[in-house]
Amino acid sequence: MVQRVVDWVDERIDLSDVRHFIAGKGVPIHAQKVWYYLGGLTLFLLAVQIFTGILLLLYYRPSAAEAYESVQFIVSDVEFGWLIRNIHSWSANLLIAVAFAHFFSVFLLKSYRKPRELTWLTGIVLLFLMLAFGFSGYLLPWNELSFFATKVGTGIAGTVPFVGRFLLRLLRGGDEVTGATLSRFYGLHVAVLPAITTALVAAHLLLVQRQGMSVPIDVEQRAKPGERLRQMPFFPNYVLRDVLAWYIALAILAALAAFYPWELGKKADQFAVVPPGIRPEWYFLAMFHTLKLLPSHILGLEGERVGVAAFGLAALFLVLVPFLDGRSNRGERSPLFTALAMLGLVYLVAFTIIGHFAK
Amino acid sequence: MDSKARTVGVLVAFLGVCPFGAGVALAQTPAGRDTCVSCHAGLPESRLARPAELFAQPDIHRESGFACADCHRGDPGATEKSRAHDGAHGFRGKPMGLAVITACARCHSDAELMRRFAPRQRVDQALEYATSVHGKRLAAGDTKVATCASCHGAHGVRRVKDSKSPVFPTNVGGTCASCHASDEHMRGYTLPGGAPLPVNQFSEYQKSVHYAALMKADDLSAPSCNACHGNHGAAPPGVGSVANVCGTCHAVFAQKFETSVHAQIFDKGCVECHGNHAVLKPSDEMLGTGAHAICATCHGGPDDKGAVAAEAMRGDIDRLKGAIDATGTLVARVKNAGIEVSTQELALAEARSHLTLARAEIHASDAARVDAIIQDGLKIVTTTDTAGQRGLRELKYRRTGLVISLGVILLVVVTLALKIRQLDRRG
Amino acid sequence: MAKLDDIRVADDREVNRRSFLDTVLNVGYVSTAAAIAYPVTRFLIPPKSGEPATASVVAAKAASLRPNSGIVFQFGNKPAIVVRTTDGELRAYSAVCTHLECTVQFKADTSQLWCACHNGIYDLSGNVVSGPPPRSLEKFNVNVRGEPGDEDIVVSRT
What we know:
The complex is a heterotrimer of chains A (about 350), B (about 425) and C (about 160).
Chain A: H1 2-12, H2 16-24, E1 26-28, H3 37-57, H4 67-76, H5 81-109, H6 117-139, H7 144-157, H8 164-172, H9 179-211, H10 217-222, E2 231-233, H11 234-259, H12 282-293, E3 297-298, E4 301-302, H13 303-324, H14 326-329, H15 335-357
Antiparallel strand pairs in A: 1-2, 3-4
Helix pairs in contact in A: 3-5, 3-11, 4-5, 5-6, 5-11, 5-15, 6-7, 6-9, 6-13, 7-8, 12-13, 12-15
Chain B: H1 3-17, H2 19-26, H3 35-41, H4 46-56, H5 60-63, H6 68-72, H7 81-84, H8 98-108, H9 111-117, H10 125-131, H11 133-139, H12 148-152, H13 172-180, H14 183-186, H15 201-205, H16 209-215, H17 225-229, H18 242-247, H19 251-259, H20 262-265, H21 271-274, H22 305-336, H23 342-361, H24 367-426
Chain C: H1 12-44, E1 56-61, E2 69-75, E3 78-84, E4 90-94, E5 104-107, E6 112-115, E7 120-122, E8 128-130, E9 139-145, E10 152-157
Antiparallel strand pairs in C: 1-10, 2-3, 3-4, 4-9, 5-6, 6-7, 7-8, 9-10
């Protein structure tokens, strides 16, 4: 049946180029190929977010007076609203986890080296965009936890050197977290960030299609000159494996929604006392806990500002990695950058765990 | 009304309608010719200067066109003391004792006069005052008691509605306390039984719900001293009339109390259990035969019908309270998980009203009537609880659905894996 | 890379297994699609309650509210009351008594709103006439909407 539709379209717009491309596309086979699936998985989860997000958009109301009630309406009155909302909330977390996994695998396997610097650049920005999606979306239910987490998070943004105060007011839509903040975050979450993401994902995918999959350096080195690596056909072999990964992700989502359903919480009260032990979602926890542990003053400057500046520098470093790692660019092993990547991974995992169990 | 009071009352009423009195009251000082204020304001002795200062502040009499001479008489145009204070012009100086009452009543008990300035104002204050403890003692010669000026002031008299007036609702307590809380002032006065008159009424009142309502909750209808004791006819409510006094606001409780056996027994009515000045916020702890219960002061033991009734009523109320709490927690939990429960929340509010109704009903001391209300409340809670349980089942149903879909997904995963293996083998 | 001509001819058993697997897989894909389409379709269909009941609610049918009568109804999770005066004017207030939150009701003989708990009385403007309530009742907006002859009374927050 699908074949009949394809043929019908083919008679009208010549699909022979597309057929040719797909038939000729292959994916290299080697020990590390399992990491290839992470990119597609990230894309799948992003699609899930867009789909469920649009559905939620139809009922959600972005004002301080109605946001919480509209979410309550969605989960209790709208048919299967609880399901759509649960999937959106859990998939957000899964998306960020998989995005980070994708990032680390690329970092460790040095896929960013020439000629794939642009892919890395678009990817890094996409990673930051996912974090922005998470941060902005978290406020939208307007419950106690999200309100105070936003207050703390935007407060930290206010400590960025030089532009901190401006940034804080820009984010909050004022000096405090209010309905104005909600409006802004909503605009960011459903319009601004999706627009930028769409453009960057398109660029990212186009680059991957043009350049094919990167092969790890030691696999490349082991290959005899002129020898072509074993490949599997993209369609149907690799695609089915991708779909398998997607189905596994779907299973994890279903399990999470079944056994750890997302609750409504209490409606945010701007004048309530900050609940003790308030902290952001897990993907900001490492950074948050690091800032908490920093001494109040370092070398005469405020500890928090130094921390935030350091994170800023780390982000800049990440963006520039392909241009700094000369050895990978020459096709040589680059143990320094491997070590840095491992350090980063260990630091993030450790501090997330410590931050979770800290009082 | 005893003879002394009647004398005062007649005197005042006579003066009030006396045309001469009316005529004098109308003699207002021509503008620009009032030397009383200008002279007294410049005097070094503060006792003499103060009235002039106060009279210059917001004062209802001055604003209505009255001046010093309208009460004190004398010659306001004269520039020299002996002429200004001339007895021939009727100069009175500072009125003391009963003279204060007559001075004020000369206008304030004159209906025709008062109609020209404040048509809605009452004109029987002096008559009422004559019936009060203050009035009676004054007639007997005691000048320590309060007169018009003690509470309203003499110079700088503000409207009662003016929040700075000493008789504005939130200030009344402090005004009464300026004498009644002073050990020194109240020395020598006794209660009917002979015990010394207490001076702790205001401090006790400050602990009360009424004080909190008046001062913190801005409820100006909440009672201060005058609400129960009267304004001008101030006297403690007599035995047997306490329930009427409290009942002017707490009508439902007074009605129910009337029907109870306690109405026959209690001398002091409501005050027996609730106190008179330190009326605290009541709690369910007061009911029953437990440690803090008031019923236990008289009732106790299994043979005491009163104790049995008190226990029954307390037990009923506790049961409904517990049921509401438990179901409330269930409904909140279910709501948080995403089930629609507005009807259930409404029903629980209705059940809480039943608690309120029951707490009013206990004043009739009839355990059966309280039980009827409680049973109605419990019925509502049971229905709500059933709905809450249904909510829990809905949550379980959702989880089951997801687990089933999980199973189906895993099935597809297995099939996919097999298909991939097959494809690989082919190629 | 596999090409169609490279595939060896399969034997019967293998063909059966292959098409069985394909069938099962197709069934799997279709059920996934259905499992997504069904909830999404139900989600898109507007629920009975229309919109969150915090802002506005249909209180009653206009025809069922006669002059000098009142109806208590559910507004969100609290009671509210809509009243038609003897002149035919519609008014709506929160039915939560401002004293201790019992539900007020309409008293036709005095044309007032009355709280049974402690005898609090409000006039038809929501103001306290007598009794313990410290504040007047919260006022709501009333509108009539719908087909003539079958109008709904809609109550909403101001």
